Amino acid sequence: MDLEPLRPVVGRLPEVKMPVIQPTLNERLMYTLGILVLFFVMYHIYPTGVVVSKDTKTEFLQLVLASKMGSLITIGIGPIVLASIFLQLFVGAKLINIDLSQPRNKALFQGTQKLLAIILALFEAFIYTNMMQLDTALYPVMGELGVRVLVAVQIALGSILLLYFDEVISKYGIGSGIGLFIAGGVSISVVSGFIGIITGFGGIPESNTLAYHLLQGGANAIPSAIIVLAPVIATLLVFAASVYAEGIKVEVPLAFDKAAGYGGRYPIKFLYTSNMPVILAFAFLSSVQLFGRMISGITFELGGVSIASFLANYNMAGQLDSGLLYLITPSFPSPLAIAGGMPVYINLMLTSGQTLLVPFIGAVFVPEYIHAIVYAISLIILSILFGYLWTETSGMTARDVAGQLKRVGLSIPGFRRDERMIEKILSKYIPVITVLGSGFVGLLAACADLTGAIGTGTGILLTAGILYRIYEEMEQRQMFEIYPQLKNMMGGE
Fold it and tell me: What is the architecture, at CATH level 2, of domain 1-174?
């Protein structure tokens, strides 16, 4: 497949131009803060034609995809990330032949990704209107179809705005817009969850609040309060583990070819692909859930069992509660929402389960702990897969890094000044660390999700990594402002 025919279309898409003069660190902070404020504004605006209601059926994925059901950002960054997944898979499978080392081709690839994200935003917007409560008062004026089109256009535009906000952040701000939106959504959830544990705010049962147990008094007051705080403790542990993992790295010594005695070290971090594997994995799982809803009406049977029920079955509340797709999605109850808290949650995980209808076999009972195990394994495998694809398509392979180091005049001391030698040395580390780091991120996210961490374990993991990267970039840009010559040596923008 050749992307060249798309160049005229891609060239007409609006884009955020690169700054003629690079913004200072303070200016970048102001741009970043401004975009974050706009994100929060959109988070609290509901489209015309939608009845405001709280939706908990997809709350987990809403956090990871920086979305809020029923608002302008109902689909959040889902289309943006999904477009990246599709194109990465096509490039990885050699279905798209394009040399991303060429700036012209890279611009075409990024433009195609933007075009696909816009198309997916429109497509997903119409699907999501089936999951929302629409304002029937507008039906006599516009008709049901008219209201659905009106709502779909509004939430599609919300996602498209996030796409361009991400461009503004990448060129004028600090970090990644996608990461910033995720951190913003998770932060709201963490603050409200923490307040809820203390006071019962947000519909948390009274028996799960700190105030309730402390006011009870007696010998069990403190132990009960500690159990209530288990989600808070889990949140802090996940955050600490994430920050610690961000600091683990292997350093490859480097030397300047034209300046004997001067050099440095190239750090290959344990989390080499950062949190992108998990973001991509959950965008994929979000699409899986949408696929499950699309096939829920299919009546075709195989071996006496409906194929739709075998793949994804929904209960009366519209929640995915059984099927193959259920086993790989994080459809777990929240300890905060269960009366009795963590002890009851653990008992449910060990004793409850769902019935899976298998063709030619019939009903098979699947314990909830099996669901947890399958989900964890699936998330680890998906994270490794997307971690590998991310390195292949984002210029992070050993070959790509070797070329970058050679272009700025760096080589490895004790070896020939040959790009192939640099690649050979880096190949000993990068592929292994990519697999280990991506797998670790998936494992930590899955385990954290099962502990009931506030903001979800995956959300905390992503937020910790995002904030750490923002801090690193701020530190680097401050160093570039102090020593401009260092910026030229490192090839900084």
Answer: Orthogonal Bundle (1.10)
